[in-house]
């Protein structure tokens, strides 16, 4: 009885061992099959991934590289040349700007003494040169505008319409001597009344002349008629002054 029990128990143990060995082998085989199926999917892109890659290669635009902003060239304050420019602002005002170089100042000191610049004061002298060939000494009259050292532009109230002007920038000594450093161009202020200048020619365009009635299609019949009369009686080449004084 003991022998049979022992044999039966051994058989059960062997049976169980065989079952576990079989299960282990089946599990490993299933794992290998699963891995074999999964590895190609992980290693190789899917069709959607390949299509996305093609799109990325064909149409993807990389962000532009940052570019250095190009700064526009700055207008220099000084050009290193002695000059005085006079401009007309309106019938009553002028505007002048200038540049006096260090070389010009040194020349002034050499000619009038090392302290000449410090003991003199800067002045803008405005000459009325209407109707004359100005040579620096024959102005109709002039007026002085006291300015400050270090400035390089000034607005000048002259209150003289229809007048020609020239300006000197210079230095006045304590004894009243005036020394010109720079001289400007000559300008002429406009008059306060309406201009009496007219165009030399007032030419009618042939196409407009022939189709005048069509140009006034939206106007009243009387206005079209009157406009047609006005244009018909004016000969080609009539000056604007004659146009203004014509009687119809």
Q: What gap, in angstroms, lies between the N and C termini? A: 157 Å
Shape: rod-shaped
Number of helical segments? 8
**Order of secondary-structure elements:** HHEEHHEEEEEEHHHH
Mind summarizing the main beta sheet? Answer: 5 strands, antiparallel
Percentage of residues assigned to helices: 25-40%
What is the average per-residue confidence, as pLDDT, rounded to a whole number?
75
Class from helix and strand fractions? alpha+beta
> Measured on Cα atoms, how large is the radius of gyration?
50 Å
Strand content: 15-25%
Strand segment count:
8
Q: Flag low-confidence runs.
A: 37-43, 215-220, 230-248
Can you give a write-up of this model?
The protein has 248 residues and is of the alpha+beta class. Helix content is 40%, strand content 21%. It has helices spanning 2-43, 47-59, 102-112, 116-119, 206-210, 212-215, 221-233, 240-245, and strands spanning 83-90, 93-99, 121-128, 141-146, 153-157, 164-172, 178-183, 187-188. The strands form two sheets. Strands 3, 4, 6, 7 and 8 form a five-stranded antiparallel beta sheet that branches. The radius of gyration is 50 Å and the shape is rod-shaped. The termini are far apart. The relative contact order is 0.10. The model is unreliable at 37-43, 215-220 and 230-248 (pLDDT under 50).
Write the layout of secondary structure elements.
Layout: H1 2-43, H2 47-59, E1 83-90, E2 93-99, H3 102-112, H4 116-119, E3 121-128, E4 141-146, E5 153-157, E6 164-172, E7 178-183, E8 187-188, H5 206-210, H6 212-215, H7 221-233, H8 240-245
Antiparallel strand pairs: 1-2, 2-5, 3-4, 3-6, 6-7, 6-8
């Amino acid at each position: 009885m003991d022998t049979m029990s022992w044999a039966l128990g051994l058989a059960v143990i062997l049976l169980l061992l065989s079952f576990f060995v079989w299960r282990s082998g089946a599990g490993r085989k299933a794992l290998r099959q699963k891995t074999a199926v999964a590895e190609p999917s992980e290693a190789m892109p899917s069709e959607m991934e390949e299509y996305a890659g093609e799109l990325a290669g064909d149409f993807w635009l990389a962000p532009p590289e940052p570019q250095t902003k190009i700064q526009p060239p700055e207008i220099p304050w000084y050009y290193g040349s002695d000059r005085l420019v006079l401009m007309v602002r309106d019938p009553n005002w002028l505007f002048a700007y200038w540049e006096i170089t260090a070389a010009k100042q040194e020349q002034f000191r050499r000619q009038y003494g090392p302290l000449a610049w410090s003991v003199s004061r800067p002045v803008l002298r405005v000459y009325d040169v209407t109707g004359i060939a100005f040579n620096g000494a024959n102005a109709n009259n002039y007026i002085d505008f006291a300015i400050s050292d270090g400035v390089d532009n000034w607005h000048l109230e002259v209150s003289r319409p229809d007048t020609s002007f020239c300006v000197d920038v210079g230095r006045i000594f304590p004894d009243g001597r005036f020394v010109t450093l720079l001289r400007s161009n000559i300008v002429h202020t406009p008059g306060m009344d309406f201009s009496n200048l007219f165009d030399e020619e007032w030419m009618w365009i042939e196409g407009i002349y022939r189709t005048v009635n069509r140009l006034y299609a939206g106007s009243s019949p009387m206005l079209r008629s009157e406009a047609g009369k006005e244009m018909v009686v004016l000969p080609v080449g009539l000056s604007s002054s004659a146009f203004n004084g014509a009687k119809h």
